[in-house]
Write a structure and sequence with these properties.
By secondary structure, this protein is mostly helical. The longest helix is centred in the C-terminal third of the chain and has 34 residues. The protein has a two-stranded antiparallel ribbon. A hairpin with a 4-residue loop joins strand 1 and strand 2. The protein is 66% helix and 2% strand. It is globular and about 50 Å long.
Amino acid sequence: MHMSDSLLSPVVGGTFWIASGALIGYSAKIITEENDNSKTAFMGVLGAFVFAAQMINFTIPGTGSSGHLGGGLLLAILLGPYRAFITLASVLIIQCLFFADGGLLALGCNIFNLAFFPAFIAFPFIYRVIGGGSASPEKLAFGSLMAATAGLLMGALSVVLQTVLSGITELPFGTFLLFMLPVHLAIGIVEGLVTWGVLVFIARTEPSLLVPSGTAVHPRSTFALFAVLSLLVGGVLSWYASPQPDGLEWSIAKVSGSSEFRPVSEPLHNALAALQQKVAFLPDYGFKSTTESLRNPESPVNAGTTLSGIVGSLSVLAAAGTIGLLLGRKRTEAERQ
């Protein structure tokens, strides 16, 4: 559900840059005021895990499309909504800058669509009401499924609204929505099942991570586990990602007959596209050069994908981890004063 700049007008894109930036600032303020530093230390490693997980597209049977996890609900459950929002924003920024996944103008929309709805709507009003704090596996499963699906559907609806409000494409609202919602319903169900599976695993290995706040966790073993999983998933399992277009691309193709639009000939769009092309050193999670074409086409091994998974996971680990460290220090300094 990473939007490209070709779907957005500067006004809509800029508006959501401001909205997402304000939410990041507000979340940072809340984190510094909370008396809980135990979860902040996990922002980096859990962000790296979500980055790696997003590299694995899974096929949606019978559609010719694919989807990947958003990760917002899982982060909200493990970190709380404010840390989750900043962590997922870090993931999306790294994806945009280093891998050209989602446009620069669309970055504010992508952060809002993928992070706001699961962290601030689905988690507190759906998951926590149904399964939060419950030891029942059934309630945990139902809460995960309902919240993940709702978060994805709200994000998909937001994509359609942002596109239509921009008015630079000919995608009709009703038809676009007709394709977007069902395919993201399927993706949301898969995300809910995966989220539930991860939570069950964590409940057995590190249950203190599922406690809302104020509980000490054991960072060494858990940190190492998620770090290893991030490198394994991003560096190796990503070879087996589905080649099918994702839910957004598939919906656009069904409505318009093409998964891509011609570049918008506006100065801002052109400038941002040129900037992203210069900054992204592994565009589309692969090498810029053509040397990758020399690899054996029958082998799933992909050096560009492996490098992207490792570099991306470590970049998110460093970025979100540094942010968490700085916010923790600010909170400590505020307490001393």
